[in-house]
Design brief:
The protein has 387 residues and is α/β, with parallel strands linked by helices. The protein contains 15 helices and 8 strands.
Length: 387
């Protein structure tokens, strides 16, 4: 990769975090973005600007072209290197702006649905500092939807671990507004890397909805699932058992722990949480059962229902114990997908009520596609020597 060099604009440090308008941050983002474009151009052309006597297998430069670029930091004014044969285009434009194009499309949908221009402009300005007109929507959708559809329908292979989650938003359906579920799945492949596998918009989180999502993944080639990690939604668990026979189910320990401490008095919750955590974080099942015995002895008289609650869930909470100890920390909760859900929530909070289900699916799909790209090449779990 070409070396990236850039100069921090003079005086930017003084107002970077103090200026209410965020102008200092915008200028810094502009400088870094320009440096990234220049570095990519050097890699493409194989030579710096005005270099003499250097072979150029990918053609010759043809000056610069100004380009305005809307980002979450505001409008950036960039100089894009040009190729005589038109072969150079900064990849960052397509990758960075995908979710922002989706947000613009959502704004346009709101215009078409009759939402006031004032509200639409406010949403656009909060999201990325730009005003939107309905006339720009169709072109944005034409660029965005084919890429999303191709990504969502791409063939799948072997994924050992599956982590799934759902979130809910208010979505307009005709003259009414209802809460709709957005289900999505992440897998860990044989290289230990995470991938976003797919998603589904549905009227609610039901067994049928999860069956539909899992069925789609299997039709596209998903195989080799050994463990499904999720919360304790009954329909989800049943659908996973039927879709992936022989695979284990790991109940998210973080979700369980929050419910478990509610089974005891407030004054006892801190101590009870510590004892439950000792069980859940044991290095192996034998040690976990020893810790469970201690928990039972300490709490059975004081909080018998709480002890019974832990024992009822113990098998699903310790399912991860059947896998390498080095994988336990990553697989015993859905924290990884919960972090991604926070980004979906941030976008959803700007919209508040989505104009239709397709609009929400477009935005969330674009965000998940970008997350998938960010994960590419990063080892999340070491699977070497693990059968």
């Amino acid at each position: 990769m070409a070396e990236m060099k850039f100069e921090v604009p003079e005086g930017i440090g003084e107002g970077l975090f103090s200026e209410p308008s965020g102008e200092g941050f915008r200028v810094l983002v502009e400088a870094v973005t320009q440096a990234l474009i220049n570095a990519q151009a050097e890699a493409h052309f194989g030579a710096q600007w005005n270099a003499k006597g250097v072979p150029r297998p990918n053609g010759y430069r043809n000056g610069y072209k100004p380009r305005d670029f809307q980002s979450v930091a505001g409008a950036l004014e960039l100089e894009v290197p040009q190729a005589r044969d038109g072969s150079f285009r900064p990849a960052l434009f397509d990758r960075w702006q995908r979710s922002e194009r989706a947000m613009l499309a959502a704004c346009g949908q709101m215009v078409l649905a009759g939402v006031s221009n004032r509200k639409v402009c406010k949403l656009a300005e909060e999201a990325f500092g730009a005003r939107v007109s309905a006339s720009t929507v169709s072109n944005l959708m034409k660029d965005l939807e084919p890429a999303l559809e191709a990504f969502r329908k791409r063939p799948l292979e072997t994924f050992r671990y599956l982590l799934v989650d759902a979130r809910f938003d208010k979505v307009r359906e005709g003259d009414s507004v209802s809460s709709r579920a957005f289900l999505w799945a992440t897998g860990v492949n044989d290289q230990g890397e995470r991938e976003v596998l797919g998603w589904l918009d549905w009227r609610g989180e039901t067994k049928v909805s999860w069956e539909t999502l899992f069925g789609d993944l299997i039709t596209r080639g998903l195989k080799g699932v050994q463990l499904v990690v999720s919360d304790a939604h009954a329909g989800l668990v049943k659908a996973a058992e039927e879709a992936f026979p022989g695979a284990g189910w790991q109940e998210c320990q973080a979700h369980f722990l929050r419910r478990a401490v509610e089974q005891v008095k407030t004054v006892d919750q801190k101590a009870f949480r510590a004892d439950v955590r000792a069980v859940l974080h044991a290095p192996d099942r034998e040690r976990a059962m020893d810790e469970m015995k201690l928990l039972r002895d300490r709490w059975v008289k004081k909080a018998p229902k709480a002890v019974e609650y832990v024992e009822e869930h113990l098998d699903s909470l310790l399912a991860v114990m059947a896998f390498p100890e080095s994988h336990h920390k990553r697989l015993r909760t859905t924290n990884m997908v919960e972090r991604v859900n926070q980004e979906l929530k941030r976008k959803g909070r700007l919209v508040r009520t989505w104009p239709n289900a397709a609009s929400r699916e477009r935005v969330y799909g674009a965000l998940l596609m970008e997350q998938h790209e960010n994960w590419a090449g990063i080892t999340w779990l070491k699977l070497e020597g693990v059968s």
